[in-house]
Predict the 3D structure of the following.
Amino acid sequence: MITLKNVFKDFRITQYYGWTPFALKMKKRYEETGKQLYKYGKHTGIDYGVIIGTELKSPINGIVVLDDDINDSGRGIAISICDFKQLVGCRFYHFSANIVDINFAITAGEIVGFSGKTAGKLTIGNTPHFHFELVRIDKTGRAIGLYNGAIDPFNTRLVRWVA
Ligand SMILES: [Zn+2]
């Protein structure tokens, strides 16, 4: 069982994990354009609609392994934090800013960045939101399994959210 700190409980969900209608529409676009985002036809995380500048906290203890600004893929400002005890990673996309660097040690509940609107044009109307993704990793931090390791953060057989 993966344990996550319930740091997003006050936020409004705008897109759930899975084969959402939007993701399926985007898969068609992927097949036509080769854009990587939504290549599975599956939304691999949860979108939370929050105003730009909202403080965002990490739901896990971990190490920052990616601190990036990938404008081309639709991810925008992205970070990834790996929890090597639970062997899961948390990815955040579409920040306006982050306040971490590679190799920073993060404690669950610590602020890691601020929400933004840095999703590409292809994502859901590009209204202000951030994308949170939970992935299985191996001991080196590499994502393993289907869909780049992504699992449903609300799968109650796998994940437990605690205060
Ligand atoms: Zn998303």
